[in-house]
Every structure is written in structure tokens, then in C-alpha cells.
Design brief:
mainly alpha; Lysozyme; 6 strands; two-stranded antiparallel ribbon; Helicase, Ruva Protein, domain 3
């Protein structure tokens, strides 16, 4: 998944509620999961392939080589460093980079805006918690109920959250991207348009190195695998690094395929969240009423930093309609702001560690809140657990 900075929380791309706890209270720790689950080295199939671009059938050289058909110096330096750091034959890396093409779309979409876009939570929510995603989400849940139940029992993440993330990311596989990942990552790693963000360019180079390593291990075909303009792949839109470190074999067939195997995609979303701090049986939002001066409690950032006692001292109270139990009171909390600048509206919520686990998937508060709200709608329709836990 690609993580835009929080300043881009408006719904530029059209593309959790955990209102329910599982019926299996004993879940392994994140550390135990790392030991239990090994990402397979079998090939991850890409969404579509172009037979003209497979090894041995290359018909055109790429855009990152010089007149002598050699990699440009900065790419060759990267190839040498990657070969040494990851124990991959240098000629293999050079062969891959030698056919990478410049992706003008990726450059255009990453170009920094010359004008400030006003953030609108209302607009963002309408675009993501919409009738299409709700209707298709219910159908997706029903069609893959066994896989969702298995993943929920293994990782402690409710089906509603898993379904909501896949829905917001790709509308349940409808929009997974049609750009060759090799091209987009090479382009953004070496031609990132915002010169004031060198850390972003470096991040894409690291993802390119991860892609090369995945190809070397036979986990995907870097000559053909496709994804978003930023290099995210499959139903859950995993970046190469996330695929390498957090993906899971959901159906036990010894392979991981995030594009063509829904069970793998479902298990991978759940495993990612659990390894990034998801706490089973905890709501996404604490069931409390915040004081009128809630704005003063917003600290920003991606880590909860207040206790329930501190919030009480500031005037917060448990909601009269609360049905979430009291476990959340033992965890750190954070007050988040969901602003709608055009309408001059402010919405504040008290987030648990599970909200912040979702922000590891995408750093935007808007995104994490939309996942929670979509999950709420889906759980309510499916009659799964108590959807009011997130309110």
C-alpha cells in the first residue's frame, strides 16, 4: 500500500469500527506470529503480463541507459550496492534496470501541487463509504466468509475491518493498477519530481530493491508484475517491502498471490495489522464523549499518547450508548481531528491503538476513519458483533 503524507488527507484518490470481537479470545502475540508464519518463496502471480517483456524476449531497451547501452551512472551504482547488500547477481539487476521505462504518469501524479487543497472529511467519507463499496463489500464478505473467519481467528482482526480495507484500496479487486511496478519504482526512485523530498526518492529506491529481491527469490516476476502508479500491488495494494515482510499464505497452498488469491489477500491484510499493533477485541474508537475543548487535546502524530485518566480530567465521559466494555480504558488513547475546511466543520474522535494500527497501512487520519466507518456499515448489515462499539 502506498502511504501519502497526512497533508493529503483530502480525497484526491477515489480510489476501522471494530465493532465486534472474535469468539476466540486467545490470539498469538505479534512476535509469535512472526515465528509461526513464513512467507513462501513461490512466485506471486501478477495481474496481467506482456509476453514481449519476459526474460529472453525483450524487444526494447529501457529509458535509464546511455548511448552505449549501459546503465546510467546513478542506476549502476544502485545496482552494485543492491547486489552486494542483498546477495543478488549484479548482471541480473542490471538486466532488470536496463529495461525499465520512464513512467510520466507517476511523475505527474507525484508532482507537488502549486496550490493548497482544502481538506474535506465530508467529501472524503462520501467517496469511500459509498453505496458501491457497501453493496460490494457485503457480497465480498458473503462470498469469502470462510477465509475471513479463518483470518480473524488467526490474527484477531474482525472481518469487517479486513473487508473495509480491501474495499477502499481496490473496490474488492476492481482497481489494482495497470502500471508495471518496475517502471514506476525506477521512475520515482531516480526521477522523483519533488526535489525538496529526497527521503521520498530514497524510499522508492528501497522499494525497488525489495522488488528486485522478490524477483530473485522467485516470489514474483519483476518484468511483468503490475500495480498502482506508486508501485502498490494486488487486492490489498501492498508495496514490495510489505509483501516481503507481512504477506501471508491464507489457504495453505504454499504460495502467496495477492492478485489472484483472495484468501492470501485477506490473510495478508489481517497479518499486517496485527504486526503493526492491532489489539484483538478492542474497538477502533473509544466510546466516549469528548469535552467542548477537544481541539486542545489533538496532538497529531501516529502514536496514542494519553491515558483514559487524563482524558477524564480534561472532561471526557463514557458515552451513554457505549457497549464496548472497559478493556480500552487500559490502553493509551489519542484524540484525532477530522476537519472539513470548506464547510468549516470539525469532528473529533478518541482513537485506540487499533486506529493507529490502521495508520500504518495509510498514514492519513481520513483513511483510517473511513475504514472504520465502512467497517461499521458492513458489520451492521451482516449482523456481525455490535457495530456501536466504534461509536
Amino acid at each position: 500500500m502506498f502511504r501519502p503524507s497526512r497533508i493529503l488527507q483530502v480525497a484526491v484518490a477515489s480510489f476501522l469500527l471494530s465493532g465486534c470481537s472474535t469468539s476466540h479470545p486467545e490470539h498469538p502475540s505479534a512476535a509469535a506470529l512472526d515465528k509461526q508464519i513464513t512467507v513462501s518463496n513461490d512466485r506471486i502471480r501478477s495481474a496481467t503480463t506482456d509476453s514481449t517483456e519476459k526474460p529472453g524476449r525483450l524487444v526494447a531497451r529501457g529509458d535509464f541507459i546511455d548511448a552505449n547501452a549501459k546503465l546510467l551512472p546513478e542506476l549502476d551504482t544502485f545496482a552494485k550496492e543492491t547486489a552486494q547488500a542483498r546477495d543478488i547477481p549484479l548482471q541480473d539487476i542490471r538486466a532488470l534496470l536496463g529495461v525499465a521505462r520512464l513512467n510520466e504518469t507517476a511523475i505527474r501524479l507525484m508532482q507537488p501541487s502549486t496550490t493548497r487543497i482544502q481538506r474535506s472529511w465530508v467529501t472524503y467519507r462520501k467517496r469511500n463509504v459509498d453505496p458501491i463499496r457497501i453493496r460490494r463489500g457485503v457480497a465480498f464478505w458473503k462470498a469469502h466468509q470462510n477465509d475471513l473467519t479463518r483470518a480473524s481467528q488467526t490474527y484477531g482482526v474482525p472481518p469487517s475491518i479486513i473487508v473495509a480495507i480491501i474495499g477502499i484500496e481496490t473496490v474488492y479487486g476492481q482497481y489494482t493498477g495497470s502500471y508495471r511496478v518496475l517502471d514506476t519504482l525506477t521512475t520515482l526512485g531516480f526521477r522523483y519530481p519533488d526535489k525538496g523530498r529526497p527521503e521520498r526518492q530514497q524510499m522508492f529506491r528501497e522499494q525497488l530493491a525489495d522488488l528486485i529481491q522478490l524477483d530473485h527469490k522467485g516470489q514474483l516476476d519483476a518484468y511483468t508484475v503490475e500495480g498502482s502508479f506508486a508501485g502498490a500491488m494486488g487486492l490489498p495494494q501492498f508495496m514490495p517491502g510489505s509483501l516481503m515482510n507481512f504477506a501471508a499464505d491464507g489457504d495453505g497452498d504454499g504460495k502467496i498471490d495477492l492478485q489472484g488469491n483472495t484468501a492470501d489477500a485477506i490473510a495478508s491484510v489481517a497479518r499486517f495489522l496485527r504486526l503493526h499493533g492491532w489489539e484483538p477485541a478492542l474497538p477502533v474508537f473509544a466510546p466516549i464523549t469528548l469535552p467542548a475543548q477537544a481541539a486542545a487535546l489533538v496532538k497529531g502524530g501516529l502514536v496514542p499518547d494519553m491515558s483514559w485518566d487524563q482524558l477524564q480530567q480534561a472532561g471526557a465521559r463514557i458515552s451513554a450508548q457505549a457497549h464496548a466494555g472497559s478493556a480500552w480504558q487500559r490502553y493509551p488513547l489519542g484524540v484525532i481531528d477530522l476537519l472539513d475546511e470548506p464547510r468549516k466543520l470539525n469532528e473529533y474522535r478518541s482513537a485506540t491503538p487499533n486506529f493507529f494500527a490502521i495508520t500504518h497501512y495509510n498514514r492519513s487520519y481520513f483513511y483510517a476513519a473511513a475504514v472504520a466507518d465502512l467497517a461499521h456499515e458492513l458489520a451492521n448489515i451482516m449482523g456481525y458483533g455490535d457495530p456501536d462499539q466504534a461509536r
